[in-house]
């Protein structure tokens, strides 16, 4: 568990996660509206080399990034507008995962289709900041949390 006092601390956690990310990884970002999911994802993208601001993928649903913009291909995904897990098939997320990583906001929209090896990060309001908790599957045990 980590207490994050503000958006800058949330982005810093994302930056700490970035060097641990590798092809095939999925990071599932859980939390209500305004919980800090996008701030954490922006920190990861900045830590992977993105210069400038990353737009929220709320409208596009999938916002892909690739080298040389980042050191690793990443798809930043926002499933908020997805109503049926079957709709996700059309997004071809497995293709992004084949040679890159996925940052998935609103992963609960995947239902039982959420990958079992995904790092699950949960953000919840805590005063003016937020609390970060996680579920660490076997592929992440040596990589998360940062030591």
TrEMBL record:
Provide the protein name.
Answer: tRNA threonylcarbamoyladenosine biosynthesis protein TsaE
Q: What is its main location?
A: cytoplasm
Origin organism is Sphingomonas morindae
The family note in this entry says:
Belongs to the TsaE family.
> Where does the record say this protein resides?
Cytoplasm
What Pfam families has UniProt attached to this entry? TsaE (PF02367)
Provide this UniProt record's keywords sorted from A to Z. Answer: ATP-binding, Cytoplasm, Magnesium, Metal-binding, Nucleotide-binding, tRNA processing
- Per its UniProt record, what Gene3D superfamilies does this chain match? P-loop containing nucleotide triphosphate hydrolases (3.40.50.300)
- Enumerate the InterPro entries for this protein: P-loop_NTPase, T6A_TsaE
């Amino acid at each position: 568990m980590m207490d994050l006092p503000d958006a800058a601390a949330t982005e810093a956690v994302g930056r700490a996660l970035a060097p641990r990310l590798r092809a095939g990884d999925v990071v599932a970002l859980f939390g209500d509206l305004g919980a800090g999911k996008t701030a954490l994802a922006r920190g990861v993208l900045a830590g992977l080399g993105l210069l400038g601001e990353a737009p929220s993928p709320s409208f596009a649903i999938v916002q892909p990034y690739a080298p040389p913009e980042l050191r690793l291909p990443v798809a930043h995904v926002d499933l908020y507008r997805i109503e049926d897990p079957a709709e996700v098939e059309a997004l071809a997320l497995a293709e992004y995962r084949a040679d890159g990583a996925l940052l998935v906001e609103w992963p609960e929209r995947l239902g039982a289709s959420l990958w079992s090896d995904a790092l699950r990060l949960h953000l919840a309001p805590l005063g003016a900041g937020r609390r970060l908790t996680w579920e660490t599957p076997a592929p992440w045990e040596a990589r998360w949390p940062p030591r």
